[in-house]
UniProtKB/TrEMBL annotation:
GO CC annotations, alphabetized: extracellular region; plasma membrane
Source domain of life: Eukaryota
Species, as recorded: Monodon monoceros
InterPro entries in UniProt: 6-blade_b-propeller_TolB-like, Arylesterase, Paraoxonase2, Serum_paraoxonase/arylesterase
Predominant cellular place of this UniProt entry's protein: membrane
Catalytic residues (positions): H114
Annotated protein name in UniProt: Paraoxonase
Signal peptide region: 1-15
Function: Capable of hydrolyzing lactones and a number of aromatic carboxylic acid esters.
Chemical reaction(s) catalysed: an N-acyl-L-homoserine lactone + H2O = an N-acyl-L-homoserine + H(+); a phenyl acetate + H2O = a phenol + acetate + H(+)
Gene: PON2
Glycosylation-annotated residues: N269, N323
Membrane protein topology class: Peripheral membrane protein
A Gene Ontology BP annotation from the UniProt entry: lactone catabolic process
Length: 354
């Protein structure tokens, strides 16, 4: 009787593990392939060889790139080189990516930038917020951009127990932001277990010097985040659920869910087209290729444009798609004056004139 019970429990456990594995493959879109959607007038950006995970563009055309992200278990083309912040002036006829100097006292050797966001204060001071993973920990760094010197002055490092696994950030004040946690845990093994079991414990946190609170939760893996042009709505990408959530922002900074847009791809970072309010999404058509890197079968890239997301039937179009022969693992797409920048998790970056 005891052996029969043990065998029954083992069978149930194996069946559960098998079901979770199959579900994870589906969440990763492990069998999906893409057909190329090419753009004319594109070239790879010189100087970006090991990823440009996030991009943010100022109204004057200055684009910031977060480069060199490293995560446990994730492929890297420059594993021993610290990350950095690059800048490109999109008003120039032939813009180049230049690395910004960072003020003394900041630990450059452990700089591991992830999501970024800019905020322009009432006195035109430009702040750059950077999700940082020094030694695979989690901080948010706030810098002041000094344009004349092409440099960043480090102002503050933020750590908080409600920010255990920060992915992306959207600044809403000089020291105020919303941030996504893509995992509930910070320990690598528990992160893996959480993802495997599909616990839906990830969240969005609001941070200010006076208050820190969870304002949305229940995501599979909350990833990219941005804000509507009228500042009324927050958009959140749930990468493994293939969804974009639209949340209404209230005066107390709390969020309530308004709608969910389901897609057929892993959605990463979200950018807003300033001329139209459309959402541009950097996507991973096949997450298994992204996380289990094979140079002979590299991860593909995909960029979507979402028009009228608040409407009953938003329009979703594919702007760009590639099988990895040009661009591997697209994570972000940003546009300015018909110039499109596409960044990747750990590969190159693309500049296109539309």
């Amino acid at each position: 009787m005891g052996r029969l019970l043990a065998l029954s429990l083992l069978g149930i456990a194996l069946a559960l593990l098998g079901e979770r594995l199959l579900a994870l493959r589906n969440r990763l879109k492990a069998s999906r392939e893409v057909e190329s959607v090419d753009l004319p007038n594109c070239h790879l950006i010189k100087g970006i060889e090991a990823g440009s995970e996030d991009i943010d563009i100022l109204p004057n055309g200055l684009a910031f790139f977060s480069v060199g992200l490293k995560c446990p278990g994730l492929h890297s083309f420059a594993p021993d080189k610290p990350g950095g912040i690059l800048m490109m002036d999109l008003k120039e006829e032939n813009p180049r990516a230049l690395e910004l100097r960072i003020s003394r006292g900041f630990n450059l050797a452990s700089f591991n930038p992830h999501g970024i966001s800019t905020f322009i204060d009432s006195d035109n001071t430009v702040y750059l917020f950077v999700v940082n993973h020094p030694e695979f920990k989690n901080t948010v760094e706030i810098f002041k951009f000094e344009e004349e010197e092409n440099s960043l002055l480090h102002l503050k490092t933020i750590k908080h127990e409600l920010l255990p696994s920060v992915n992306d950030i959207i600044a809403v004040g000089p020291a105020h932001f919303y941030a996504t946690n893509d995992h509930y845990f910070s320990d690598p093994f528990l992160k893996y277990l959480e993802t495997y079991l599909n616990l839906h414990w990830t969240n969005v946190v609001y941070y200010s010097p006076d208050e820190v609170k969870v304002v949305a939760e229940g995501f599979d893996s909350a990833n990219g985040i941005n804000i509507s042009p009228d500042k009324k709505y927050i958009y959140v990408a749930d990468i493994l659920a293939h969804e974009i959530h639209v949340l209404e922002k209230h005066p107390n900074m709390n969020l309530t869910q308004l709608k969910v847009l389901k897609l057929d791809t892993l959605v990463d970072n979200l950018s807003i087209d300033p001329s139209s309010g459309d959402i541009l999404v950097g996507c991973h058509p096949n997450g298994q290729k992204l996380f289990v890197y094979d140079p002979n079968n590299p991860p593909s890239s995909e960029v979507l444009r979402i028009q009228n997301i608040l409407s009953e039937k938003p329009t979703v179009t594919t702007v760009y798609a590639n099988n990895g022969s040009v661009l591997q693992g697209s994570s972000v797409a940003s546009v300015y004056d018909r110039k499109l920048l596409i960044g990747t998790l750990y590969h190159r970056a693309l500049y296109c004139q539309l």
